[in-house]
Specification:
- The complex is a heterodimer of chains A (about 525) and B (about 350).
- Chain A has three domains: about 5-245, no CATH class; about 355-380; about 405-510, no CATH class.
- In chain A, about 65% of the residues lie in helices and about 0% in strands.
- Chain A is built from 24 helices and two strands.
- In chain A, helix 7 (about 115-125) packs across helix 12.
- In chain B, about 45% of the residues lie in helices and about 15% in strands.
- Chain B has 15 helices and eleven strands.
- The chains are: A mainly alpha (about 525), B alpha/beta (about 350).
- The interface of A and B includes residues 461 and 495 of A.
- Chain B: Pfam families: AAA_3, AAA_lid_2.
Chain lengths: ~525, ~350
């Protein structure tokens, strides 16, 4: 299997171009890839379905979980086909069990959810790397596996799209009478056992989708891997030299090697991985040139008998490279967080003391300005604030102590005479208006302090009566009505009260036992 | 009703007209009260479940003011006016305000008479006692302004001649509260000329039940009959009633209360602008009418307070902040009434 027979033109590509190459690769070997995948997976799914007939979801999950194991088959085919050694279908299928050996458990457990699966599989399968070596190799290769992750995400969506598309296609191809809503509803309303086959059908669709997509996915991952290697190890150059070698014959081998293989370009990048650089499947072949153990390497002193030996030349080269135009010092100033990271670093500009004082003053001024602004705002809208604050307080007002002064009258109990009816009777003869006012005050005082009636300055006589009705005391109500009628007639209509009204009201007052001075707080 | 009407009203209409030489003021007042009460009950038969609106409309009639009634369609605004016109016995005219109504359609205009080869004045529908301006906000401001002069001066100037409208003259305008397409809000000057703005609300359950029962019993399709109502009041009785009403005594404190209420609206937080002196005048007149309606011999602060919302609500403007909050004028006015001290001595 000569390496120079590579079926693809190996050259450094952008990762997405490499993915494109993978698609072309899968396309070229589509028949073999699809057939091998189908022959491998479809019977397996059938077996799962039969074993887990009552649990179609579990069967599907199991099938899905085993995908990394299946993916080794297309990779095997592709790696052979790359250099023209395409296996037959039988060969590939027979090789599959052997391929499962390398770290299958890891692939199916903790690496199952790795998004760069397609990219790292060749490492495992073709380079046959394990443990520490694999990790080092991944470090060298895997710094740009972003596209591989995107490829997996893309793959998930493509799978879902194709899957739903296939299901919808099946639905669309159903005869109309069967596809009518009622029959579907009737079907879905039946016990779940009766539509298990539907789920198995959808599982089968998924398997079909994988037949198409998975080989492409593996091929894309493989080509990403190839691309990364040709970037790091100058594979393209190596293959070009090999072709030259074949054309010119063995004689020129030494010349070619001294000219080409030890160029710093590929060697520097691939230094740490040279020993295992080739795919395992290729490493055994006669034409695969690996660096020999006794090779002195680029660092060894050479040309020691020349006027300019390699060491000196190297030093001169280094000096040349360190000077312009190869070495350029560029200064850039960027914004960054410095104070938090380096607490001990001295400030770039030392602030003068007077400036610090000024900033303190300015800070105080700004705060004062803010406070003043808020105060001004509050003053500007004081009416609003009062209105809404008062509205909120109305509930609490009922519990507050009743006011001493109300309606322009002194209604505090202490301002009233001890024996109110007696005072009224005395006043009645000389000044009926004052007598009525005294009675009215007494009544209001009683209502406010004993009955806790929430009277306010805005209440008119009529409203006082309405509030009184709420107390459910007919005797008091009748008394108040007589009193207030007389009061209104006197105050607003200038109609003097009848002479007999005074003593009657006083009697009623005594009968009701009204006493605004009672401290017990219990009214009859 | 028959025992009411056997009082001085219907059987002997002349009794309602005052004879100052023979009758004392007290009995005159008593008769006026009885008359108004009878009118109130009669209107209550036609318009069920809107007693407060009837009271307010009667107040405006007694106080010589105009009324703007706001309410959703179908609450009987027009019915009320028709019933009032019927009970009142005066002339009644109705203008349906439409977007293409012209001022001359309201006030009248000169037409050329071919026979006499002269211009003749053709009087518009405003020359009446009771004018119903239906859906007044459907006409543009130009037409609405045609009512300004007649409402304030009670005269119409046509072709340079000032023509007085018959007395009593009262405008009852209706409008729908919902902001609809093709309505023009009334300008402040026009609003200020209405003594009261009434809000008609849905009747209570029991009253609506009674209403439905009566209407469905009627032969007419979907409205209450007003033909059954008896004319209780004649055209010339109304000025007399208005005079009695205007002479009702009002105490200085109550007068002061009215002025204080109106002045409070001018710097009340939540109101952009308050009511003018016309509001104080209307408030006092309306309180007098309400006292008469109540049967009182003098005006109390309660009378004043009861009609204050109707007098003030169209004369103040709510602050935009409160409008955004979803408050309405009535609520702010209730707060105001709740904080201005009532008079005491």
């Amino acid at each position: 299997m000569p390496l120079s027979d590579a079926a693809v033109a190996v050259r450094p590509r952008s990762p997405w171009e490499a993915v494109d190459l993978g698609v072309r690769l899968a396309q070229r070997h589509a028949g073999l890839l699809l057939a091998s995948w189908a022959l491998l997976t479809v019977p397996l799914l059938a077996v799962f379905s039969l074993l887990l007939w009552r649990y179609p979801s579990v069967a599907l999950l199991l099938f899905w979980w085993l995908k990394p194991a299946f993916e080794r088959l297309p990779l095997h085919i592709l790696s052979r086909a790359l250099f023209g050694a395409t296996p037959t279908l039988g060969q590939a299928l027979r090789a599959w069990p052997g391929l499962l050996r390398g770290e299958l458990l890891a692939s199916l457990t903790w690496r199952r959810f790795s998004l760069s699966r397609s990219f790292t599989l060749p490492l495992l399968q073709l380079e046959n790397l394990r443990g520490q070596a694999r990790r080092q190799r991944l470090d060298a290769l895997g710094r740009r596996s972003g596209v591989a992750r995107w490829l997996t995400l893309l793959g998930i969506h493509i799978e879902l799209l194709l899957w739903t598309g296939l299901l919808v296609l099946i639905y669309l191809l159903l005869p109309t009478d069967f596809a009518s809503e009622s029959s579907w509803l009737a079907l879905l309303l039946r016990p779940p056992e009766e539509w298990l086959w539907l789920e198995h059908l959808s599982n089968a669709c998924y398997a079909l989708v994988l037949v198409v997509w998975e080989p492409i996915y593996v091929a894309c991952g493989f080509s990403l891997y190839l691309n990364r290697r040709s970037e790091l190890e100058a594979w393209d150059l190596e293959l070009a030299f090999r072709r030259l070698l074949e054309r010119l014959g063995q004689a020129s081998l030494v010349l070619l090697l001294s000219l080409g293989l030890w160029l710093p370009h590929g060697a520097v990048l691939a230094q740490e991985t040279e020993q295992t650089a080739m795919p395992v499947s290729l490493a055994g072949s006669a034409t695969c040139l690996l660096p020999s153990e006794d090779n002195p390497g680029p660092q060894a002193p050479r040309l020691t008998h020349q006027p300019l030996d390699s060491q000196q030349a190297r030093r001169e080269i280094q000096a040349l490279l360190a000077a312009p135009p190869f070495h350029r010092v560029e200064e850039r100033i960027d914004w960054g967080w410095s104070a938090a990271d380096e607490p001990d670093a001295p400030p770039l500009i030392r602030t003068p003391a007077w400036l610090q004082g000024a900033t303190a003053v300015i800070e105080v001024l700004l705060w004062a300005l803010l406070v003043a602004g808020l105060a001004l705002l509050a003053w500007r809208y004081r009416d609003w604030l009062r209105l809404f604050a008062v509205r909120g307080q109305t509930a609490r007002e009922a519990d507050a102590a009743p006011p001493a002064q109300l309606f322009g009258l002194a209604v505090d109990p202490r301002s009233l005479p001890d024996d109110l009816p007696a005072s009224v009777e005395q006043l009645w003869a000389v000044d009926p208006r004052a007598a009525l006012a005294l009675l009215y005050r007494g009544l209001l005082s009683h209502l406010l302090h004993q009955r806790r009636l929430p009277l306010r300055a805005a209440h008119t006589e009529g409203e006082v009566l309405v509030l009184l009705q709420g107390l459910d005391d007919p005797a008091l109500d009748a008394f108040a009505r007589r009193l207030l009628d007389a009061w209104q007639a006197l105050a607003y209509g200038s109609r003097p009260p009848p002479a007999e009204l005074g003593p009657e009201l006083c009697d009623a007052w005594r009968q009701l036992g009204l006493n605004s001075r009672a401290q017990a707080g219990v009214a009859p | 009703m028959s025992e009411e009407s056997s009082l001085p009203l219907d059987g002997e209409p002349a009794a309602a007209t005052p004879q100052p030489a023979t009758e004392t003021a007290a009995s005159q007042l008593q008769r006026a009260t009885q008359l108004v009460q009878a009118l109130r009950e009669e209107l209550g038969k036609a318009l069920i479940g809107q007693q407060t609106v009837i009271d307010d409309v009667l107040c405006a009639l007694l106080a010589g003011g105009h009324v703007l009634i706001e309410g959703v369609p179908g609450l009987g605004k027009t019915l009320l006016v028709r019933a009032l016109a019927r009970c009142f016995g005066g002339q009644f005219a109705r203008i349906q305000f439409t977007p293409d109504l012209m001022p001359s359609d309201v006030t009248g205009h000169a037409v050329y008479d071919l026979a006499s080869e002269q211009f003749k004045l053709r009087r518009g529908p405003v020359f009446t006692n009771l004018l119903l301006a239906d859906e007044i906000n459907r006409a543009p401001a130009k037409t609405q302004a045609a009512l300004l002069e007649v409402m304030q001066e009670r005269q119409v100037t046509l072709e340079g001649n000032a023509l007085a409208v018959p007395r009593p003259f009262m405008v009852l305008a209706t409008q729908n509260p919902i902001d609809q397409e093709g309505t023009y809000p009334l300008p402040e000057a026009e609003l200020d000329r209405f003594m009261l703005k009434l809000r008609m609300d849905y009747p209570a359950h029991a009253e609506e039940l009674e209403l439905v029962r009566q209407v469905t019993r009627s032969a007419r399709s979907d409205m209450l009959e007003v033909t059954a109502l008896r004319p209780l009041l004649r055209e010339r009785d109304v000025p007399v009633l208005q005079k009695i009403c205007a002479e009702l005594p009002i105490d200085a404190q109550v007068l002061d209360y009215a002025v204080r209420l109106v002045r409070a609206t001018r710097d009340w937080p939540g109101l952009v602008f308050g009511a003018g002196p016309r509001a104080s005048i209307a408030l006092v007149r309306c309180a007098r009418a309400r006292a008469l309606l109540r049967g009182g011999e003098f005006v109390t602060p309660d009378d004043l307070k009861a009609c204050a919302p109707a007098v003030l609500r169209h004369r103040v403007r709510l602050a935009p902040e409160l409008e955004i909050e979803g408050q309405d004028v009535d609520r702010v006015l209730a707060q105001l009434l709740d904080q201005v001290a009532a008079p005491r001595s």
